């Protein structure tokens, strides 16, 4: 029986490209979920659910209410059940100045999503799938073209891993600090280069294979 992993995230799961690509999106085998699929092998189905601009729990007053990760997650989980693993990597968009959120508040938003997964009954036999919380790599000091949008984000982004680790321990789920294996691209300061996607996909595969 094959197993299923859901990858729920933002533009860095969708595959927003930092180098020239058609439609500014990496190809399926370049995106970290595609790398994850190759690393896990034929016994796994990997579902990509990335959306540009997605937050943990906030409607975006500029980009739209559909950017709220909590409003779609429930439907997404029911659509793809049964799930063996759910990987959630969100938080970068919560750093935008217009949300004015602390790292602790962003982690609490992640906690809402984790609780939704734990109580949805979408694991095998209606149980709880394994959950992996991934803190995004910190933004760089320089964020070309979006400096005002992400004003004050960099120091907060460095604190997300600690806040997420505490959250994961409290909820009894797995945790991975993406910043320990990759860094954000110098192209714009918050998206990922192809080599980062490759490294992240392999690191997440290793975490999944530990169990």
From TrEMBL:
InterPro entries cross-referenced by the UniProt entry: Ester_Hydrolysis_Enzymes, SGNH_hydro, SGNH_hydro_sf
Any one GO molecular-function label of the UniProt entry: hydrolase activity, acting on ester bonds
SGNH hydrolase-type esterase domain segment(s): 7-199
Protein name: Lysophospholipase L1
Naturally occurring in which organism (per UniProt): Bauldia litoralis
Taxonomic placement: Bacteria, Pseudomonadati, Pseudomonadota, Alphaproteobacteria, Hyphomicrobiales
